[in-house]
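STRUCTURE REQUEST FORM
Protein name: Asparaginase
Source organism: Arenimonas soli
Requested output: C-alpha coordinates
Priority: standard
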Amino acid sequence: MQELLVVTTGGTIDKVYFDDKSDFQIGEPQIGRILQELGVAFRFTVIPILRKDSLHITAQDRELLRATIAAQPATHVLVTHGTDTMVDTAKVLAAIPGKTIILTGALNPARFRGSDAEFNVGTAVGAVQSLPPGVYIAMNGRIWDPAAVRKNVAANRFEAIGG
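Status: completed
Returned output:
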Protein backbone atom coordinates (compact mmCIF):
# COMPACT_ATOMS: atom_id res chain seq x y z
CA MET A 1 0.00 0.00 0.00
CA GLN A 2 1.57 3.26 -1.14
CA GLU A 3 -1.02 5.54 0.40
CA LEU A 4 -4.28 5.16 2.27
CA LEU A 5 -7.25 7.27 1.26
CA VAL A 6 -9.51 8.04 4.23
CA VAL A 7 -12.97 9.44 3.56
CA THR A 8 -15.01 10.61 6.55
CA THR A 9 -18.79 10.84 6.79
CA GLY A 10 -19.29 11.61 10.50
CA GLY A 11 -20.95 9.16 12.83
CA THR A 12 -20.33 8.41 16.48
CA ILE A 13 -16.55 8.19 16.00
CA ASP A 14 -16.52 11.98 15.46
CA LYS A 15 -19.20 12.97 18.00
CA VAL A 16 -18.56 15.65 20.61
CA TYR A 17 -20.68 16.24 23.70
CA PHE A 18 -21.84 19.82 24.19
CA ASP A 19 -22.70 20.52 27.84
CA ASP A 20 -24.61 23.71 27.08
CA LYS A 21 -26.87 21.91 24.62
CA SER A 22 -26.92 18.57 26.49
CA ASP A 23 -26.52 16.68 23.25
CA PHE A 24 -24.00 15.21 20.86
CA GLN A 25 -22.99 16.80 17.59
CA ILE A 26 -20.61 15.63 14.88
CA GLY A 27 -17.24 17.33 15.33
CA GLU A 28 -14.03 17.38 13.31
CA PRO A 29 -12.92 14.03 11.86
CA GLN A 30 -10.83 12.13 14.43
CA ILE A 31 -9.18 9.61 12.11
CA GLY A 32 -6.18 11.78 11.17
CA ARG A 33 -5.37 12.38 14.84
CA ILE A 34 -5.78 8.67 15.62
CA LEU A 35 -3.45 7.61 12.78
CA GLN A 36 -0.84 10.24 13.74
CA GLU A 37 -0.91 9.27 17.42
CA LEU A 38 -0.52 5.61 16.49
CA GLY A 39 2.58 6.49 14.42
CA VAL A 40 1.54 4.66 11.27
CA ALA A 41 4.30 3.93 8.76
CA PHE A 42 2.39 4.91 5.63
CA ARG A 43 1.07 8.06 4.02
CA PHE A 44 -2.60 8.88 4.24
CA THR A 45 -4.93 11.54 2.92
CA VAL A 46 -8.16 12.45 4.70
CA ILE A 47 -11.12 13.74 2.67
CA PRO A 48 -14.00 14.83 4.93
CA ILE A 49 -17.17 14.83 2.82
CA LEU A 50 -20.00 14.61 5.37
CA ARG A 51 -20.60 15.36 9.02
CA LYS A 52 -23.74 13.38 9.68
CA ASP A 53 -25.16 10.77 11.97
CA SER A 54 -25.58 7.78 9.68
CA LEU A 55 -29.34 7.76 10.27
CA HIS A 56 -29.39 11.05 8.31
CA ILE A 57 -27.26 9.88 5.36
CA THR A 58 -29.32 9.97 2.15
CA ALA A 59 -29.09 8.15 -1.16
CA GLN A 60 -27.55 11.33 -2.59
CA ASP A 61 -24.92 11.33 0.18
CA ARG A 62 -24.07 7.71 -0.61
CA GLU A 63 -23.73 8.57 -4.30
CA LEU A 64 -21.39 11.46 -3.40
CA LEU A 65 -19.30 9.06 -1.33
CA ARG A 66 -19.24 6.47 -4.14
CA ALA A 67 -18.29 9.09 -6.76
CA THR A 68 -15.59 10.60 -4.51
CA ILE A 69 -13.91 7.24 -3.90
CA ALA A 70 -14.23 6.16 -7.55
CA ALA A 71 -12.59 9.41 -8.73
CA GLN A 72 -9.49 8.98 -6.54
CA PRO A 73 -6.48 7.02 -7.80
CA ALA A 74 -5.95 5.28 -4.43
CA THR A 75 -6.77 1.57 -4.37
CA HIS A 76 -6.80 1.28 -0.56
CA VAL A 77 -9.66 3.17 1.08
CA LEU A 78 -10.86 3.48 4.66
CA VAL A 79 -14.27 5.09 5.28
CA THR A 80 -15.33 6.28 8.72
CA HIS A 81 -19.07 6.02 9.03
CA GLY A 82 -21.83 5.85 11.60
CA THR A 83 -22.72 2.31 12.57
CA ASP A 84 -26.51 2.39 12.11
CA THR A 85 -26.48 2.50 8.28
CA MET A 86 -22.91 1.38 7.58
CA VAL A 87 -24.15 -1.82 5.90
CA ASP A 88 -26.40 0.17 3.53
CA THR A 89 -23.50 2.38 2.46
CA ALA A 90 -21.18 -0.62 2.01
CA LYS A 91 -23.66 -2.15 -0.44
CA VAL A 92 -23.60 1.06 -2.56
CA LEU A 93 -19.79 1.14 -2.55
CA ALA A 94 -19.66 -2.46 -3.82
CA ALA A 95 -20.20 -1.00 -7.31
CA ILE A 96 -16.63 0.39 -7.30
CA PRO A 97 -14.22 -2.06 -8.97
CA GLY A 98 -10.53 -2.55 -8.25
CA LYS A 99 -10.37 -1.03 -4.77
CA THR A 100 -10.20 -2.47 -1.28
CA ILE A 101 -12.66 -0.43 0.79
CA ILE A 102 -13.10 -0.87 4.53
CA LEU A 103 -15.85 0.90 6.47
CA THR A 104 -15.34 1.39 10.18
CA GLY A 105 -16.62 3.56 12.96
CA ALA A 106 -17.19 3.44 16.68
CA LEU A 107 -19.93 2.62 19.12
CA ASN A 108 -18.56 5.33 21.44
CA PRO A 109 -17.02 8.69 20.43
CA ALA A 110 -13.25 8.59 19.77
CA ARG A 111 -12.75 11.41 22.29
CA PHE A 112 -14.15 9.21 25.09
CA ARG A 113 -11.94 7.08 27.31
CA GLY A 114 -12.55 3.44 26.53
CA SER A 115 -13.87 4.11 23.04
CA ASP A 116 -13.58 1.31 20.51
CA ALA A 117 -12.50 3.83 17.85
CA GLU A 118 -8.74 3.19 17.89
CA PHE A 119 -9.21 -0.59 17.96
CA ASN A 120 -11.63 -0.46 15.02
CA VAL A 121 -9.34 1.85 13.04
CA GLY A 122 -6.39 -0.49 13.68
CA THR A 123 -8.42 -3.48 12.55
CA ALA A 124 -9.50 -1.57 9.43
CA VAL A 125 -5.92 -0.54 8.58
CA GLY A 126 -4.74 -4.15 8.80
CA ALA A 127 -7.69 -5.32 6.71
CA VAL A 128 -7.27 -2.74 3.95
CA GLN A 129 -3.67 -3.87 3.44
CA SER A 130 -4.34 -7.60 3.41
CA LEU A 131 -7.71 -8.20 1.75
CA PRO A 132 -8.41 -8.44 -1.99
CA PRO A 133 -10.44 -5.73 -3.73
CA GLY A 134 -13.98 -5.51 -2.41
CA VAL A 135 -15.96 -3.81 0.33
CA TYR A 136 -15.76 -4.88 3.96
CA ILE A 137 -16.82 -3.70 7.43
CA ALA A 138 -14.33 -3.68 10.32
CA MET A 139 -16.12 -3.63 13.68
CA ASN A 140 -15.85 -5.48 16.99
CA GLY A 141 -12.47 -6.99 16.12
CA ARG A 142 -13.78 -8.74 13.01
CA ILE A 143 -13.96 -8.19 9.29
CA TRP A 144 -17.49 -8.59 7.98
CA ASP A 145 -19.04 -9.14 4.56
CA PRO A 146 -21.67 -6.38 4.31
CA ALA A 147 -24.13 -8.88 2.79
CA ALA A 148 -23.88 -11.12 5.87
CA VAL A 149 -23.80 -8.74 8.85
CA ARG A 150 -26.12 -6.44 10.74
CA LYS A 151 -25.89 -4.14 13.70
CA ASN A 152 -27.62 -5.56 16.75
CA VAL A 153 -28.82 -2.32 18.30
CA ALA A 154 -29.93 -3.92 21.58
CA ALA A 155 -26.52 -5.57 22.13
CA ASN A 156 -24.65 -2.59 20.58
CA ARG A 157 -22.46 -4.77 18.38
CA PHE A 158 -22.25 -6.23 14.90
CA GLU A 159 -23.21 -9.84 14.30
CA ALA A 160 -23.65 -12.29 11.47
CA ILE A 161 -27.11 -12.30 9.94
CA GLY A 162 -28.94 -15.22 11.46
CA GLY A 163 -26.46 -15.23 14.34
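Reviewer notes: Residues 3-160 form a domain with the Rossmann fold fold (CATH 3.40.50.1170). The longest strand covers residues 43-52.
Form closed.
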